[in-house]
Design brief:
about 425 residues; Growth Hormone, Chain: A; 17 helices; about 0% strand; globular; cell membrane; transmembrane transporter activity; MFS; MFS_Transporters; Putative major facilitator superfamily transporter
Length: about 425
Amino acid sequence: MKERGGRLRRVQIGNALSAFGSGFTLPYMFVYVDQVRGLGAAAASAVFVVFALAALAVLPFTGRGIDRYGPRPVLLAGAALAAVGSFAFGQAASTPGLLLSSFLFGAGVTTCQPALATMIVRCTGRAERSRAFALQFTLVNLGMGIGALVGGQIVDTADPSSLTRLFTIEAVTFLGLAAVTGTAKMPPAAVEPAPAGAGAKRGGGLRAMVADKAMLRLCALAGLIFFTCYGQFESGVAAFATDTVGTAPSTLGLAIGANALTIVLLQMFVVRITERRRRTTAMAAAGLVWLGAWGMAVVAGLVRTEAMAATVAIVAVYALFGVGESLLAPTMGPIVADLAPSRLLGTYNAGYALVKQIAVAVGPAVGVLLVGSGTWPLYLAAMALCTLLIVALAVRLRGHLTPAQDNVRVLPVPQREPRPARELQTAA
């Protein structure tokens, strides 16, 4: 048990390093391509498109690799790709070079995610898994926040070498990920019967996952969650705040900071509550909290001429998003782990990550388009409807999960001992 805890700590340190690296550079990739290299907004947008496409290209193979070779070799390969891509990105000065390095960078970062998730499952039992995923989520948010803060102190658009240093440092963080987590020996995959509802008997790999109706329903719900929340967090909502409400960039940074602070302060408290509740209940509750966030966004739009009131409303939007995210963190990953047959754990984690990546790529495009066209009431109404659909799908998912998968604790019913026959005759 002590050895397993040491492995888990190394995995969580790896999660924090990976998040720090992403927060360190991702916010500054656009300005690096557009302003520092002077290649324009179109080239900068193409860099992000290629980054997302790289994820779609590698994830199907990532899951198969994890199932065949284990998560550690896949993590090492992903960390190496990310380190090479990040370093090359900081050196590239032309559009083709930036696109190629962006592809390597995106492929590496995306490869690491399901490998780390599989490592968490391997290092935990069912009882402690929710806490492990909640801690991972907290560390990821903390790492990205600190990374963005530190990166912002290094970036100087008038000095191209500052951006080169930025991406070089990130390459070093991925090498640190490989050294700390990639060298941790993982317990062997548990040999256990496939969970009820899993597609273990219907083939291997992606075919088995696609045949698993419970997993498909979970992926549909996850796609809607990532489209409605994470896909809007730094795009549609940020555009609404700055363009429609007139929120200053410094105030928007304060709101994003409030989101991270909410998660850090609430996460381990919330996980104690969700441990005693159905996971589907926690997901539905997250949807209701986000519905309140969209309601506050409506308030911000209506009172946008009142600077202080609008500012409070925008900060409340991001804080409420953080509350909902805290409810989700201990639920989604453990459900995927419980649905997956042990031999297909990598495939299930990669499939879940693929859905997440698609939703996060589509969400910003839809959000920015609706806000940019001046139809912010339509945007908020659409997001509110999507949030209501999240609540409905979470409740409907309940019927497709076993009690164990939904974190329902079935208490044994005490049986009364039968009275001896002679005692019964005496009583008569």
